[in-house]
Amino acid sequence: EVSRSPPLVRNKAARLLGGGSKTTATHRRGAVEEPSSSSSTMLRFDFSGSSSSTSALSSLVSSRAYKGWLLDQFGVLHDGEFPHEHAKDLVRVLAEEQGCDLVILTNSARLAPHTFARLEKMGFRRDWFRGVATSGDVAQRVLALPPGASDEALLPADHPLWSDLDVGELGDGPGGKRRRRCLHLLWKEHDKTNGIDLEALEIDVTADPAEADFVLVHWFDTVAQEDGSLRRVGGEEITELLRQCAGRGLPMLVANPDIVAHKGDKLLPMPGSLAVEYSELGCPAERIHLLGKPSPIVYNLAKEKFFGHLDKSEIIAVGDSLEHDIQGACTWEIDSAFITTGIHCDALQGCDIPEDAWCDAEELERLCKEHNADPTICSEIFGL
After folding, report:
1. What is the DSSP letter of 300?
2. What is the pLDDT of residue 37?
3. How far apart are CA 194 and CA 73, in angstroms?
4. Distance between CA atoms of 219 and 188, rounded to whole angstroms?
5. Nearest of 356, 369, 335 to residue 56 by alpha carbon
């Protein structure tokens, strides 16, 4: 049961990425305008030009312009409980009829096999997908590195993430340094198979902010204890723990940067809300590391593992979050398709839109500018 509510912060992910800069229209498709000196966000999508809810997506699929598709799962393929049958049909068309490479790109804090298992239970065939890249996979790979090491396939060697994970003290741990200690917020139960096994990574846990080197967020039901047990925590206690960690300037790694996600017809808070709160408590943005969308780190993982044979111009990302999926695609400089019936559904498909419109075009344009997101196309659903 989720009791924690996400703080409402304007353009949260952009702020944590050190954002606020203008997204320029430099992609090769869509209604592209030349960048100008204006400080306003430049948008490529013609918000008034789409005559039906899926016409732009249908045209794009028919064009066969993309060989690689990065697909979000929640809000695109399913609602957290049940699959979208139209999405299942389109995935089959792209995989079987067009021979496209489809990769699930998700801010799930669990490892790829967990996502595959979920999708198979919903009727999506595993052989339709080239693979899965999760923010949990990124967390596993990053924390498997010894202190002081970097992985330039994911982020440049001078990125602050690598120095934030370097304890710098000699010891008998990996790399000749002492074992790192983290304050770990996670699920109700340990999931060392699909989640993370810190002991196997030679990382110790502590529930004392004064002893931690960094904060690791997978979920927010429990805090890991030194004896291997888990202790349930509520919102007020989490805030106090984060306050103490922020006071020490501890880095935070967020294995699921989503703020909210669909489960059926409800929107539930996600671990990314803790990153926002941590920033509000005074931790500098450069010490808060989002290990999934919109950070380039998870896109680079997907490219390395599955799309090494493709140019970025041949890849499109599909998602329902302007703040994560679309802003992330813009940052990584690929085209994107925004699905309007996901987490922004209430704002875009409300009761006040004209009868002959499929979404609130003015609100859509406003949200895109607010989140510094520039979709190539917009569609009501991921379907034809």
Report:
1. H
2. 31
3. 17
4. 9
5. 335
Q: Show contacts of 141-145: CB within 8 Å, 24+ apart.
A: 141/301, 142/253, 142/291, 142/297, 143/196, 143/198, 143/201, 143/203, 143/216, 143/253, 144/201
> 289 - beta bridge partners?
253
SS3 content of the chain, % helix, strand, coil (to 5): 30, 15, 50
What's the whole-model pTM score? 0.84
Q: Which pLDDT band, with edges at 50, 70 and 90, does 371 fall under?
A: confident
Contact by Cβ (8 Å): 10, 20: no
pLDDT per residue over 186-199, tens digit each?
999 888 999 999 99
Mean pLDDT value across residues 158-168: 94
User: How far, in Å, CA of 363 to CA of 228, rounded?
Assistant: 48
| pLDDT digits 0-9 by tens, 255-281 | 999 998 767 777 788 999 999 999 999
Integer Cα distance of 136 and 149 in angstroms: 19
Q: For residue 292, give Cα distances in angstroms to 17, 85, 99, 134, 240.
A: 11, 27, 27, 7, 25
Give dist(CA 267, CA 175) in Å, integer: 43
